[in-house]
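Case study B.
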Amino acid sequence: MSTAPPAREPSPDPATNGDPASGYARLRELLVGPEQARLEELRRRLDDRQLRTEDLSQVIAEAIALRLRRDRSLQLALNPLVEEAVKISVARDPGILANTLYPIIGAAVRKSVAHALRGMVESINQTLERSFSLESLKWRVEALRTGKSFGEIVLTHSLRYRVEQVFLIHRETGLLLQHAARAEQIVEDSDLVSGMLTAIQDFVRDSFTGAGGQEVETIALGEFNLWVQHGPAATLAAVVSGTPPPELRTLLERTLERIHSDFAAALSTFNGDAAVFVGAQPLLQSCLLGRGAQAEKRKSRGFFIAAAVVVLALVAAGIFLLVRHQSRWDKLLVRLRSEPGIVLTSAEESWGGYRLTGLRDPLSVDPEKLMRDSGVNPAKVTARWEPYVSLHAKFRAERQFRVEKDALEQQVLRFALSSAQLGGEQLSRLDDVEALLVNLQEHAASTGQKFRVDVRGHTDPSGNEDRNASLSQARAESVVKALTDRGISRDMLRIVATGSREPVRPNSGTYLSDLNRRVDFRLILEPEGAR
Amino acid sequence: MIQKKICMVGAFGVGKTSLVARYIYRKYSDKYLTTVGVKVDKKFVQSRGAEIKLVIWDLAGEDALTTVKPAQLRGASGYILVVDGLRRQTLDAAIDLQRRVAEAIGAVPFVCVVNKADLRETWEVQRGDIEPLSAQGWTLVETSAKTGSGVEELFQTLTDAMMQEHNVSDSTTGAVAG
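Model:
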């Protein structure tokens, strides 16, 4: 407005000076001239594209900044424009955009490939673990039945992990926005956890500059894993016990994306008031997946180990017992086969016992004694022995001995009433007794058997007991004396006085009671230990 | 509840951790423990009738080998510059640090504290050193982590300043939105 007003140009016309019309024009010019000139100037500027562009260029940056602060409509309006511009740029010369993106594209591809590979390795491991189990089959059936993806079923059922706590952390300040934990979980100060976690992130970012924007995604702490998912404005961290499945990573990613879209404004203007993020609590709660299987799994693993030990011990004990049984059984068979008077025709083992069949001389050793000696329980053995007579020398001698023993025990020397004197007829019988005793002594010497002979004096039931006792004693003594007179060893003989206590036939008549006045013989084998 | 992140910064061994320990746990130990990286603590403070949760990032002290990491300062609503009254060079370090922190996170409220007031008679830092800073608008306080004097006030002063900023920013965002 510093230049001369152009409106003045038509006015100084000397020809029309005295004209009243021109005088009016002059008056008007004097009164509103400056305003008119300004209006003229404004109109010129509005009409002049060049000038208008210059004006706009001076304020356009501030205007955009102001509008951006107010709402997102400018972005929305510019979006198709930018897309179109990029398209045109690529169509015209792809090299420009390629060159621009070159420094970041390598890192982006590397990161994405590494991420994908790691996920794949994790899932291959898990798949291999799961694919052959009965459980996985059950899950697949459930997936088919419910129409959910197998991954979702695995997430809800997997027994190998449990999300204990979830932290939503403001990326820039490291302040805790929201926190969810299982009811039974003892929660350490979550604000400090959140702060320290962010500090660790920063530390890693600063310390490993080569990592170029890499983030800590997993921290392993004994049985706990801390899985961290990063977004532009917030970080989601999950404390997981056990081995989380890769599907959990996807869930965390999705949850964080959801939080970013639902709370975009609150995240960007966060100034310390976490109350606005209460709405994210259900999202965090939905991340508290898995069951308390860690302990269960351990317990069952411990149980399996214990069970395996017990089974091994049982198997070892079984083998030991079997071997011992076998060796005892074999020993028994050897004994039975070598035993005179026993002929083993078959020996079988069956479930729960043994079966033996064969021939056995009644004089042979009791097979049950052999079993006990060999350590085989006789109750477990079913034996069928057919009796037979062995011609083994041992049995021949014994059989002879038995015959003679029976013969001796049938010998009876009779006495007259109240007498201890052997009559003439009885003396000839004494010869038989003497001969039997001599033979028995010989056979006993050949088989190593020892014996003694009870010479037993008896009376009839008449008379009193004392008298009968002494009478029976006297009868036995007279027989022993007669035998020793004939050269029989006195050591072999023993006097037994029975009185009338052992009648031949109890309660018989007088005639028969005469038979009770007698001396008879009993051969007693000495036990082997007495040898 | 409003949460605010603040940082303790300063040279090596000036007493940052001791101030935090005195403030939060009301205790002091002569034993020196160097802070590795960062230690995070928290404390609830009343300011202007509201309860504020202070999340205090106690950063490792600076020396020839360690410098404050900008990433650790990120998001802080305020900071405390700690100076050791016994060592003049820690004041110079604080002046340098203040410049760098302001570059990293902008002009947020801060308080400069000269620590070890219990040994005031042996201080190297003189009134003349501090006055120019006061003139620049710095808030300066004296504390002793050992006796506890000035510690509560230190954190209270910073919290009040931060809350003033907080309310101002709230009202400005409100104005823009309207």
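The CA atoms of residues 251 and 384 of chain A lie 78 Å apart. The remaining cases will be described in the next quarterly update.
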